[in-house]
Design brief:
It is built from 11 helices and no strands. With 317 residues, the chain is an all-alpha fold.
Amino acid sequence: MSEARRVALPLAVTLAVQTLVAFAVYCAPVMAPVAGPALGYSPSAVGYYIAATYFGSMLSSAAAGGVLAGALAPLLILAFGWQWGAVAIGAACAALALAIGAVRERYDRELDPRAPISLRSAIGPVRMVLAEPPLRLMCITSFVYGGVQITLVTYLVTFLVDSFALTLVVAGLVMAVSQVASVIGRVLWGGLADRVLTRRAMLGLLGIGMGISALVALAASPDWPAWLLFVYAAAFGATAVGWNGVFLAEVARVAPAGRTSEATGGCLFFTFLGVVVAPPGFNAVLALAGSYPLAYATFAAPALAVGVWLLARMPKP
């Protein structure tokens, strides 16, 4: 019990930070259908906000989930309006930052104030993963998969509101279901990768799954019943957002001995690079075609290609 108590506080702080940061980031796509027009922008312009946000993540290799945003952001908008809802979320982030400051020194005991901070030290992990063929394959995989993931999260609510005439609350619930499915998927895919398949095979199948899910957007119709939308969002979320755990486990497996953390940071750089590049690309397709389904389908092609490529490069038995 003493060991459990020792780790409980840092675990709770870490979970709180990741949850609130994710909530703050993913509230923007949920608010986009009402905030965009109010600010004089198309709702799809939220993609640039997400790209800028993940540019910081790309540099720091920090990640976060989005269930609360889909479920709670519409309620904040209805209760307080999107402006004060955004203020409340920002205030919560600031309050958490102040609250955890009191316990930071207790755990930051191994900091080296003389450690060099330079561009060379920052890009070291990136150079390392590019020099190792198995890790280079993971970089390409996460670049593509990360791009598909962020298009789902960023544009799903706006797509549903614009194309299906759903209320913001229902569209937010659909997004929340996709995120819940991604959490379940991460556990399920990890179990299958460890006990039935290999991690690389699982990653390949997930690429094919998210590619097919993106293509199915072409068949989406306002005539779909609500339950079918929830099922579709769950399938898309379980594949396009649920791949991360298997990916990180495979990175750890193929990383050089003693360099797992560097390999993880280097590969995550490319994950977030895909996240930064994808929203402007999605917006470009949307501007040319004027169709959310066609924009989603465009991102299906690279996901399918990487999925097939991973399966084709499976080691011979």
